[in-house]
Amino acid sequence: MKIGIVCYPTYGGSGVIASELAIHLARKHEIHLISYARPVRLNMKGHGVFFHKVSVGSYPLFNYTPYTLALASKIIDLIRKKRVELIHVHYAIPHTSSAYLAKKALGKDIKIVTTLHGTDVHLVGLDPSYKPIVEFSMQQSDRLTAVSESLKKQTLEKFNIDREIEVIYNFVDSEKYKRESQNESKEKLICHVSNFRAVKRVLDVVRIFGRVVKKIPCRLYLVGEGPDKSSVQELVRKLGLENKVEFLGNTLDTSRILRKSHLFLLPSEQESFGLAALEAMSCEVPVVASRVGGLPEVIRHGIDGYLAEVGNLEEMANYSQQILRNQVLRRKLGCEARKRVLGKFTPQRIVPQYESLYQRTLAK
Ligand code: GMT
C-alpha cells in the first residue's frame, strides 16, 4: 500500500505513535510522512520512511500563517507525485480538514483515516472557534479511530457524528522500553514525563513528591518542556525542594530515565490514553495516576499500578509511599505492568490492526 501519514512533529504522544507506526509499516509498505518538521522519532537513519516537510509561506497581511492550506497543498502534491492512496491523519485539528480539502481539490476518491488522540476531542475540539469544522471534518473521514474506549465515548457524546469509531490502542516498543537491572538504591527515583500543559497537573506531581520526600529518601525527575514549567519551578523553590527535583528538559530517549525509576506519576486532569504511563509500565515501573479518561484501560488499579480521583494528592502520596517502601509490592506491580504491555500494547499486536483498517477502507 502507499500511505501518507500526517502528524505533529513534537514530543507529544500523537507524533510519537504516528512516527513509530510509520517506521513499522515502512517494512512492508511505501510510507510518506508529512509534517512541518521532521518528527523527533524519525531522526535515526534506516527506517525507510519518506519525509515531506510542509513549508508555510508568510506574507505581511497574514496575522496567522494558514498552515491548514499549506498542508492541504502538500497532500495534493504527494497524491499527484507519489500516487498515495490513503491519508492517515493523527490528531484531527487541523489535519483532517486539510486532508478533506486536498481530496475535494483533486476530485479523486482518496481515502481519509483520522485517529483521534485526546485534546482534539475533549479540549481544543470543543472550543467554539473550532468545533463546527472539526465535527464536519470528522464526519467526512472515511474511518475514525480513537486511542481508547473512553475517547470513543467522549467523541460520540460531544460531537454530532454518525460515523463508526474503531478503538485501536497505542503501543510501545517493548524491546527498547525494557528494564535491564533492578536498581535498589537507597534514594528512590520518581519520574514524570509530559509537555507541561495545565491538563497534566505537573504542580500536583510536585505536591505529591513534597509529601513523599518527607517520609522516604527520594528524588524527582521531571522530563519535558511546556507552558507550565516556570510555575512548576516556582513551586519547587517555594517548597524548598531544589536539591531534590531535577528538570531534565526534552529528551529523545525517555527509556534511559524510566529504566532506573521506581515510580511514575501521572495525575492528569484528562488523559485519553497516557502513552507516557505505558512506556513506564513497559520498563516495569509502577504508575500512580488519576482515574480519568482512558487511564483505567491501561492501568489496572491494585494490579499494575494505582488510580485515585483527580486532585486527591493525599491518596496519590499514600500509594506512592506504599510502592517505594515495599520492594516486593513494587516488583510485583512492575512485573504485572510489563506483562500487560506485552499482552496488549506491542507493535506486533497493534500495527496489523491499522493495516487491516487500511485494507478495509481501500476496498470500500
Ligand atoms: O491531546 C494532546 O494533548 C496531545 C496528544 C499528543 O499529541 O501528545 O496527547 C494525547 O494523545 C496521546 C497519544 O495518543 C495520549 O497518550 C494522551 O493521553 C493524549 N493526551 C490527553 O488526552 C491529554
UniProtKB/TrEMBL annotation:
Ranges where the Glycosyl transferase family domain occurs: 174-340
Signal peptide: none
One of the record's GO molecular function terms: glycosyltransferase activity
Pfam family, one: Glyco_trans_4_2
Superkingdom of origin organism: Bacteria
GO BP terms: bacillithiol biosynthetic process
Domain Glycosyltransferase subfamily 4-like N-terminal stretches: 22-147
InterPro entries: Glyco_trans_1 (IPR001296), Glyco_trans_4-like_N (IPR028098), Glycosyltransferase_grp1 (IPR050194), Thiol_BshA (IPR023881)
Protein name: N-acetyl-alpha-D-glucosaminyl L-malate synthase BshA
Organism: Aerophobetes bacterium
